[in-house]
Amino acid sequence: MSDEIGIIATPRRAISRHSYNKDAAAIADMVETENAARVVVGLPLGLSGEATEQTRRVERFAAMLASRLTVPVDLWDERLTTAMARQVDPGSTRAEVRKTGRADALAAGFILQNYLDHQRRP
Length: 122
Prior knowledge:
- The chain is mainly alpha-helical.
- It has one domain (20-120): Nucleotidyltransferase, domain 5, CATH 3.30.420.140.
- The chain contains five helices and two strands.
- Strands 1-2 form a two-stranded parallel ribbon.
- Helix 2 links the parallel strand 1 (39-43) and strand 2.
- The protein starts with 19 loop residues before the first helix and ends with a helix.
- The mean pLDDT is 90.
């Protein structure tokens, strides 16, 4: 989530992955609860910037999500954000990261911060 004027991103809880429908419902609930103006979805491009099969899956999910929400859905490059999150929280093991979602929440915060910073550029 960001502050009201769109300057600072703050990680919130991670939403555990279940199915497109359940995930979309959880995001819709968060949009409503937080009165969000838009949703930014991390786009997993390959390190070269090329689309991968995972990129295409996320694009399909984002399109479905956009059809169910009343706010815009934007895709934003998420390359290296998980690595950045693990640097911020280096003590966590892979199992802990998966269980707690802590790295996912931090990575989402980095994605949103990058998006916000880009939006403010002239």
